[in-house]
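Lecture 7, part B: from sequences to assemblies.

Below are the input chains for today's worked example.
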Amino acid sequence: MSRSKISSPYLGRAAHESPLSKAPAFPLLAGLSISLMLLDARYPFWAVIIISLSAPAGWCLLGTSRPNRSSGPVIAALLIVGSLGVFYIASEMESAQKPEFADMPSILAGPVTSRGTVLISRKLNHGGTVLVSTPLGKCVLKFWGDPGISYRSENKGQKGEAFKPADGGLLSAGDYVAFSGFPEPLQRAKKPGGFDEFLYWKARGAGFILSSAEVQKIGVSIGFARWRTLIDARAAATLPPRTAGYLLAALTGSRDESLTSLHRSVGTSHLLAVSGAHVGIAFGIFWFFLRRFRLRLFLVSPFIWAYVFLSGAAPSALRAALMIQLVIMGRVAGRAGTGKAFNTVSAAGAVMLLCNPWLFWDVGWRLSMIAVLTLSSLTALKISPGGVFFLASPLVWLTTTLQSSLVFGSSPVVGIAANIFALPAFSVLFPLAFVCSIPALAGFPLGSATAAVPEFLFLRWERLSQNLLALCPWEISFTAPLLFAGMAAMTYLCAAASGFGAWRSFAAPAILCAGLCFLIP
Amino acid sequence: MIGADRFLPERKYLPLILAGSGAICLVLALLLVILLRGPASSPGADNGVPDEFVREGESDHELYGADGTESAWVVYVTGEVMRPGVYEIPQGGRINDAVRMAGGFTALADREAVNLAEEAEDGIHIRVPERTVEILYQIEENTGLKGEALNERRPAGGELASRGQGVNDAKEAKEAKEAKNSRQNSYVSRPSLGGASGVSEKININEATEDELQRLSGIGPVLAGAIVAYRETNGPFSETEDLIKVKGIGRKRFESVKDFVTVSR
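Predicted structure of the full complex, as structure tokens:
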């Protein structure tokens, strides 16, 4: 039925401006997020259910000035999906609370011996940590020294002859390894703010850890991980350092330490993470090359997912690919008009949490979600493009600074200015670097000359960002006013993007901030 | 739809009622969060870590009794563990708890020598031995006993004292056994006797199965598999020293097993 034919006095143009019609996925995402926080904080399950359902319900009611005839079914669907989601998440966390008897073999059962493919390899000071996909499930191997030789602990005074630094012998993604070791549960953070091994590896699918494992490379596998390693090696050998660093960050998700440090100092680390911008560029490229195919709407999906898995399937990349997939599915279903970015981001986030609740504690996922929710809510505010251009960076900085300062200790103020120019600049630089690198990667003559072009531009950017940092060297740490400002801004933007009226958009952050006053010691 | 509207309040009050209901729901949710926060998050909640996630021995609950008096046991863990040192484990804890707190075994630990399921005691010294034949060599050198003669002298169950303070002869091995029985001292281990678990015959590395190769000291399933793979890829070993060519076997490991392997039929 068309809107004009609705005769109820409660239905009119204003009826469509409500969270249930404009962004129904956001309350679902909020409810799942709240339930995860409460379950981790050991709230009683009945309270988790009540809070994680009443808060989104309150959000929907507060934002609805006039109900729509579809409001009832939508809120019923939200409650059902939300309840099932909370039950599922609770059961997942419940099983993880007893890791010895859940998804890891008992330490008393003897050593675990298996084979598998290295998915992620992290170098430590005197050894390494790798995530391995095995028939037993994903597990983390932590070893000291050089794999395949022999390893021993780094106890003071006990560095034996067998110990070797892992510089040359660290395993790479795609290596096929045989290993044995005794399983250990993943460790929670020892102190507030400390590294939480449990949550970090759980978000990546690992169930347990084999500490001081014996690991030996016995071959290489064929898969995305192997391709990543090959591309990394090829780019490092043929491209200038910065071009290789940026290109690999975008293509395979590899992080160059010096580039990471540089971008962190100016608050633009997100450029090195494969995120919506990268996936969007890839989508544009695939869309262009598939323009002659009538079924390109279907054909583009495998390419997008292949790129995401090649780049390491970071949460931000998965989120972006899922968004694109949801939009495509909407188009296929004839609902092209429903592809509102804010709702799509929320839906993608909710789906990801339902698939892997541990992602909620992944810093990359959180920062990505907060930033994109902020950006997408800005576009829903009917602000001029120029306004969005200049408002986006400060607002994203404000909403993400709380999270980044909690994780990294502080957040650089220069990020506000740097990000205004960084995203447009790198939207051009990344494709340019890719195109200019192809001759060098393919081994063509004069390939190094074409690769020098992006190298020069990256160097100019580096100098510009350093100058900006010199002008604005301050950093800001976590403080209560920052918490209030960030939360209030985020809530207001989400409310406005969800179709709240003018005063209602202020009521939501007001209630939240009042509650925070009691929650913060 | 018109009929349904009869049950709805006056149109002019509807936005207010909806907003009020929404605000009440949000306030209710916040109140529950605030009210339940205190008691639910007291122990271990400073770092947001629920007790269930905290390992045994790391929770204040387990280390201290209800009256606040100390109820933990203090144990000393040394040897082939990642972080040797003095640790507190809960009363009634197992050796497993202490080894875990010490960071778990190193790769060289003789894991079978330690009974992880055994109940610990306050003040004990848990020593995790290394998988090695050094002790056997020392005993052989000091006592002149070899092969079966040595096996006869071994304590019941074939247990010998392990590495650590340095066990110099079979007598000391026996003392270590007694120490274990009195549960005052470190573990006594079951060394792999360099070659073949006390069997004097050598293992033919050109014919041995993976299981047989694992009887060699320091050769686990991974290395045994590597030896077999090397042999299948490159043909039989021409001399025992060719073992060094197998990835993962260094000079030191070869030295420890060379007297227990052969390539001749």
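Note for the exam: Chain B has four domains: 2-40, 56-127, 134-181, 203-262. Keep this in mind when comparing with the next example.
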